[in-house]
Amino acid sequence: MPRSTLLRRDDTSPTPAERVARLDWDEAAAELDRYGAAVLPALLTPEECRAIAALYPRDEPFRSRVVMARHGFGQGEYKYFGYPLPEPIAGLRAALYPRLAPVANEWNRRMGISTRYPAQHEAFLKACHEAGQTRPTPLLLRYEPGDYNCLHQDLYGDLAFPLQVAILLSEPGRDFTGGEFVLTEQRPRMQSRPEVVPLGQGDGVAFAVHHRPVAGTRGDYRVNLRHGVSRLRSGRRHTLGIIFHDAR
Predict the structure, then answer these.
(1) Contact at 8 Å (CB) between 240 and 167?
(2) CB 3.0-4.6 Å disulfide test: which of 149, 171, 243, 246 passes with 74?
(3) Would the pTM count as exceeding 0.90?
(4) Tens digits of per-residue pLDDT, 171-227?
(5) CA 171 → CA 93, 125, 178, 200, distances in Å?
(6) Cβ atoms within 10 Å, residue 57
(7) 53, pLDDT greater than 60
């Protein structure tokens, strides 16, 4: 199925796949191991960020709209993209997955989980679709003053890739204030550890969807993670969420 050309790219600028390839993935993997999250700088240009955010009022790129307050998710709203995904969203999803799959496989090995993920996203999506998870999950979120996103996990079926990426499309301090990305980690018999991840416009954060291994005195143990967004103080904040498993 051909991809949508809703977004235009300057042919002289790097593609999303080229930007992804230039990142220090050894350092990103180390940050994920240490904290459960890693900043991926400059995945999108300011122009690309504005173009994606400008899609929000339109209907044709999306399959559904969710008003968070109706479901107890917080305040604000988001829309799930439909297939075919527009560029550069499709390109980013395909380029990020193979960089994160080795981390996901190593985490599962350390946690004693037998599932292993294929090297390419197309093969993983095929498994999702065969399991009845056929609805695309990349989404565009919009927050206005007073809006927030409760701590949660993006699990949509039996098959779930253990990492995902959120990309900030708005410029902090100019487009909005507040609205920090927040991650909490619950360790056995310990109080939860918070992590606030500072992002600039176009930066992404890769983070654990559900759980990750942590080295202890008796070997690795499993910790549970949730993520959310703090209350927006002013302005408007758009975020692109890239989830690698599809939904039922």
Answers:
(1) yes
(2) 149
(3) yes
(4) 999 999 999 999 999 887 778 899 999 999 999 999 999 999 998 888 899 999 999
(5) 22, 32, 11, 6
(6) 8
(7) yes
